[in-house]
Amino acid sequence: MAVIFGSNELAADVLTGGLCVGCGACVDLCPYFKSHLGRTARLFACDLKQGRCYAHCPKAEVDLGELAQACWNGPYEGLPLGRYRRIAMARAGAKAPKGNFQGGGTVSAITASALAARTIEAAVLTGREGLVAVPMLVTDPNDVTGAAGSKFMAAPTLSALNRAVRDGRRNIGVVGTPCQITAVAQMRQNPLGREDFTDPVGLAIGLFCTWALDTRKLMPVVAECVGDTCILAMDVPPPPAEIMVVDTDRGKAEIPLSKIRPLVPHGCHICPDMTSEWADVSIGQVEGMPGWNTLIVRTAKGDQAVDAAVHSKFLEVREFPQELKRALEKAGAGKKARAVRTAAEEGRLNTTGEQNRAALRMPPAAIERITGHTL
Ligand SMILES: Cc1cc2nc3c(=O)[nH]c(=O)nc-3n(C[C@H](O)[C@H](O)[C@H](O)COP(=O)(O)OP(=O)(O)OC[C@H]3O[C@@H](n4cnc5c(N)ncnc54)[C@H](O)[C@@H]3O)c2cc1C
Ligand code: SF4
Ligand code: SF4
After folding, report:
1. Cβ(177) to ligand 3 under 6 A?
2. Can you tell me the mean pLDDT for 17-33?
3. Could you tell me the distance, in angstroms and rounded to a whole number, from the CA of residue 225 to the centre of ligand 3?
4. Ligand 1: which residues within 6 Å by Cβ?
5. What average pLDDT does range 259-273 have in this prediction?
6. Would you list the domain boundaries of the chain?
7. 299 with 280: CB under 8 angstroms?
């Protein structure tokens, strides 16, 4: 069984330990954890020996072998893209609500379709207030596009899920980055064995992610480049561009990635998941094809959501080119290898003992596959 500690250990290992990625999984479970401008803080200490905050956190004792058994009924193998049923190219179809999508609008289209069909009753999304990424809970399919577009910052999205669960909502759709979807997957296993637990999640829609940025560190960098303007959208074009593009009401600004990379939280450097492996469906860009998305369908529920969206003309799908699949696998494998090496070097991988807690656990065979040799 995964080792579960309480909020004192979470504060020590993840908050002061520099691993927090601001996902919001510990926020609004209790009155003690809050998020402000993208950062999570613990306002008061709590002496519970085990807490949901620790159990759900994607940077504290995450046991991928155990998650794989629970989600896939099989071992964690360290596959570059995780387990899946099919990969396709996709984009929003003719009947989907129109929006300022990041790519093809696949995320918004599947979410809106599931809400319209009442497959899910509400969806947890991430909107924007100024530069700050903020959680949103929507119930109307037409409101989904209010969250369209990527905010390339760590966001406390899952605090909205915690609040929705507390308010008695069930069958909730969640759109999140891989760390957020990992937290959701852990939460769905009822790690503390609560007798009154029911799985509140109806559909987990994962994004691809290589890194996110610390909002507070990003603020002065953006202000220096574009001044005090209204941010409309952000994009990170594929290599060799080496820039982040910030679209404002006064025009586009380009920020060199050399200025952006130091703003990535350390927790991203031990993140082994590029494609939200614990989601029902995972969605990312297609390199060189801006109006399309990569769509990975992983579960029966994901299959049903995609088929329903296609049937209702909310979604359009096409075959995924083999050469792009190889490039995607290479990128996914590369992220895993970097994360495993960093976690091992820092003593955060498969360590044991109360004084030597791990951030990440995975079976030796998976480590061997990922790194090419046993660490
Ligand atoms: C931090 C981050 C890093 C990413 N890195 C990559 C990458 O390396 N490679 C890649 O292919 N794709 C990456 N993506 C995903 C990509 O930018 C698009 O989100 C994805 O292709 C879906 O496009 P879409 O047109 O379907 O999205 P849309 O239909 O426009 O919907 C976007 C969805 O993203 C959600 N969202 C926006 N910002 C955040 C956030 N900060 N946290 C959680 N959810 C958010 C919104 O709730 C919305 O539902 C990243 C996204 C984020 C947020
Ligand atoms: S990573 Fe998420 S769950 Fe963990 S401490 Fe930070 S905000 Fe809380
Ligand atoms: S790189 Fe990993 S930890 Fe960082 S934001 Fe993306 S999914 Fe979360």
Report:
1. yes
2. 97
3. 25
4. 101-108, 125-126, 133, 147-153, 155, 157, 175-177, 207-210, 212, 283-285, 293
5. 97
6. 7-213+265-371, 215-263
7. yes
